[in-house]
Amino acid sequence: xxxxxxxxxxxxxxFGRADWIDLSTGINRRPWPVGPLSPHAxxxxxxxxxxxxLCAAAAARFGCPQDQVLPLxxxxxxxxxxxxxxxxxxxxxxxxxxxxxxASLRAAGWEVAEPTDPAALEGADLAVIVNPxxxxxxxxxxxxxxxxxxxxxxxxVDESFADPRPDLSAAGARPxxxxxxxxxxxxxxxxxxxxxxxxxxxxxxxxxxxxxxxWSVSGPALEIGAQALADAQWIDDTVVWLSEAxxxxxxxxxxxxxxxxxxxxxxxxxxxxxxxxHERLARAGIWSRIFPWHPRWIRLGIPGNRAEFDRVAGAxxxxx
Length: 320
Description:
- This protein is an alpha/beta fold.
- The protein has 11 helices and 13 strands.
- It is globular and about 60 Å long.
- Its EC number is 4.1.1.81.
């Protein structure tokens, strides 16, 4: 199986406790407050009008035309489908990064290179960049994205962690050979809703929509997404909170492990031994993310309140 965060069942089965703080993902632990749902959202099949309301809210938030937005069951749905609808044979995924991109391309029959230098993407039929990158937070300004797009057949820019950084986004002004992906679950903290967006030329979105079928996004996701995307005050307040909370986490952790990088939603640290660090935190009921391809790196999501920060701090003073 592919290696992922969020595998809290594994934590519980191995360490045998129920009060886990799951910092193994980059999901906001102070989620948008969901109110009561309309009976329509729960009992009726989603309508085109429902989808149009969500697309209008997403287009306003992301700064792109409404006909260039397609809601999907998470950004992961687009990651699985794009290799099936884009033409070509040679793909390049700027690495290290989220492993589903290379895995889904290989599963669809693409030849996949995983260079670490953006210049090495040149000439690929399909190139993938995660911006800001997971797990190290590496950033690519829009001008650099545009320059890379000019050297490849098609460029997919995964902006799953870009909501607090709209200055990095390629969603608003893209050539036709660029597709931007946005996650809803991470910044809004509602990952179980399974909502995300592909932002692309209308003809490509039509091919994706044909693959997803008529009701690819649930009624509750359409209704909640439209409301949350339009909640400008919550968005502004949350960006400030995450900025301050990420710095506070660094203040706790960096006396022990140097900071490698990160975003508003997660931090990456360098440890003497990532597996040992992972187990130390687990004994305190904190689930973290380590990587089989790097023996020293550990990634932590941002705690959601004072009690969670206190438990992280306590893990560094506990015996062993």
